[in-house]
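Pilot study result, target chain (326 residues):
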Amino acid sequence: MANALNTLAQIVLYGVACAGLLWLFEQVWRDGWAWAKRTYYGIGHRQLLRVSEGFRGRQTTQLPWWMGWHDHLETLLQATLKRPHRDAVSRFIVGSVTAAVIVGVLTSVVTHNPFYALVMFALTVVAPYGVLQIRRYHMSIRNSYDIGTLLSVIVPEYRKQHGSMLHALQSTVEHLPPSPIRRAVARLTDRLTDYTTPDDARRALHRFVKELGTSWAAQLASDIEHALLDGVNVEASLALLHKEFQEIEDARKSQNLARIDTLLISCVPFLMWPVMMVLFYLFVSRNIFQYQFANPTGFTWFLLTLLATLGSFIIGITFYKPKQDI
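Predicted structure:
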């Protein structure tokens, strides 16, 4: 009887989880399909996409793999923290490893199982990195909306500075409100002021794109590169980019893609699990709570359900608002 109830509960929970997953990612699929159609059939975006691919395709001097990881972590920390310390990367690595060692030792003392200790050590090591990646993605969504302010400022500033991109960037920083975009532009300006080779400038632009995490930054970085390294007047291209952003922003507003309903769906598991437990107690068996918590298998599935519920909520928070990219 207990095995039958456990199997039935698993089937119901799996069904609810799969249905919620399909519903939860509905807007992600729709946005992906719309992006694919714009990529292959869009007329208005093709020129900008070519510019973006041209920027991404530029070759720069390859760094050693350990320097690549250091730059990756530094970019991640700068994109997610307001005032990262100069030694933020080393502090982050030391802090993550120290916390993982402490958790691993405590797990080994409590469970006397080296496998569980190793698993907890690995999870604790990667958890801070995963949290920062989720935060950066969430901030990239915000940047895809807020970058309109940057575009509206840099176009007249570039015109005012008579085609001097470096002076336009310096003036733009002064006119931007406090935000992650302002901090990214300020760091970019500092790096471009001190660059000595074209590779240094391209590497600074690449980090700028990674920090903002939006295709609009790639388009802007392409224009900055052409203006700074090739001496091209990019005023018309910047104006076109700003116009393109305004058109897409207007389309997004008219379609009402804030998707608050997706956020609400992520809360369903919080309500469904206790409701299902009550229904099983009333209509299936009065021993359902004993099967769930007193039985090792039932308690294991309770923990898995709890993790899935928390994961669902995190996914809902992350994806409830789509990127405003091209």
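One observation from the pilot: The longest helix spans residues 114-160. A full batch analysis is planned for the follow-on phase.
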